[in-house]
Amino acid sequence: MISIGITGASGMLATALIERLHSEYRIYATSRSKGVEKDQVSWQCFDLLDDRRLKSWLVGNNLDVIIHCAAIVKVDQCEKKPDIAENLHYRSTKIIADHFQKNEGQLIYISTDSLFDGKKITLYTEKDKTNPLNAYAKTKLLGEKPVLKLKNGLVLRTNIIGRGNNKNLTFAEWVVEGLIEKKAFTLFNDVFFSPLHVNDLADIIVQLIKKKTTGLFNAVSSNSLSKYEFGLKVADIFNIKDKVIIKGSIRDKKLIAKRPCNMGLSSNKLSAVLNKRMPSIERSIQLLKNQYENN
Prior knowledge:
The chain is of the alpha/beta class. It has a single domain, classed as NAD(P)-binding Rossmann-like Domain (Rossmann fold), CATH 3.40.50.720. Helix content is 40%, strand content 18%. The chain is built from 10 helices and 13 strands. The chain has helices at residues 12-21, 51-61, 75-80, 82-102, 135-148, 171-180, 198-211, 227-237, 268-274, 281-294, and strands at 3-7, 26-31, 41-45, 65-68, 106-112, 153-158, 160-161, 185-188, 192-193, 196-197, 215-219, 225-226, 245-248. Helix 2 packs parallel to helix 4, helix 4 (82-102) packs parallel to helix 5 (135-148) and helix 8 crosses helix 10 (281-294). The longest helix is centred in the N-terminal third of the chain and has 21 residues, at 82-102. The two termini are 33 Å apart.
């Protein structure tokens, strides 16, 4: 049975991956706190910044595949503590990559859509030159490099939505909660993105593992919307009539870290590999609605 390691395993994407993979593969999950428990899932809780513990985990479990989900997703937190962001996003990734240089295996690195300056009008492709604006994006980009040097390295640039499993609301949950509670809130009409539902991304990763796919891919939805348009779509699909969304501009918001206005990515390269069109943002919102209804 193939052994798959998952870092950041208590997070939203990793939880979805465990649900998809545990019945078919042996899973070795690690994070600072334990997440979902399933058959064939072994947990080891430690901080990835502890090099000794990380190397011990790698050597001790004889892993065939590692899905490196661990990240500090709060952009302003990375800006305040760039050294910690670099240690997690780059150093831990390089340790894993160095391990796989000596031991044949596939390393899948979950990257971000925030690697560009956002000045391009159309969707960014894998061939576009990166120009990260903040510590989060710069350190995530650093983490891509040792993975892409591997024979079996795979980098997925993505932006996901879904229901999280901790007290901190995801962006999509924050939008839904605001609409349900009828609290007025502002969404930017000049920031564009291509979010994909976490369950669809988990399914795609499973397919890529089976295909032994390598290289760099944008793993996003088939279209792009502004954050404001996204909020309106959520209201429509959730059938919430009283919209309390205020149209705003990122230029009027004082943020610690600079953000790009255009994070929209093209999914054409991944669509060609999978031989299917990527899901739309509307489908992703519908899947989010299904999660709320099922819970």
